[in-house]
Amino acid sequence: MPIDQFDEIAAAELRRLVRGGEQRVVLIARDLREPDLMAVVEYGVRAILWRHQTTPQRLLRAVQSAARGEGDLPPDLISRLLTQVGQLQRSMEASTPAGLVPTLGMAPREVDVLRLVAEGMDTRQISQKLAYSERTVKNILHALMTRLQLHNRAHAVAYALREGYI
User: Fold this and answer.
1) What positions does the domain HTH luxR-type occupy (predicted)?
2) DSSP-derived secondary structure for the chain
């Protein structure tokens, strides 16, 4: 999928392509801003090529890597992505109460809450089912959505489904 800039149209097309999780997308980009890089990775893009560096041989190699389920990124993007993951990990550590181990995935109680959200339950029903206060349910959802940069409950459920948590 070639793009000049990552915008809402490109994001919608990526979501369409990776829906169902079976498509392995190779993105050819002119440029990617820092937040766009994380979004592209979250959508499941397997390989990224810079447009100015794309040759038929390089494209073939990227497509073959993606078909094998492997990743293929230019070295400068690997560096940027590692920097972003490190920053995310440090921010999680700083905001995690002492004694808890931060993870990039989902905690069991987050999965429990999202399972019930997926079943159509509201905050009050979830709190009753899990014997949590409504505030705790809201805090679990807020922390999860903030940490994983999810926009709303539907996005959180979709993420959990796509990643195999529920």
Assistant:
1) 99-164
2) -EESS--HHHHHHHHHHHTTS----EEEES---HHHHHHHHHHT--EEEEGGG--HHHHHHHHHHHHTT--B--HHHHHHHHHHHHHHHHHHHHHSPTTPPP-SS--HHHHHHHHHHHTT--HHHHHHHHT--HHHHHHHHHHHHHHTT--SHHHHHHHHHHTT--
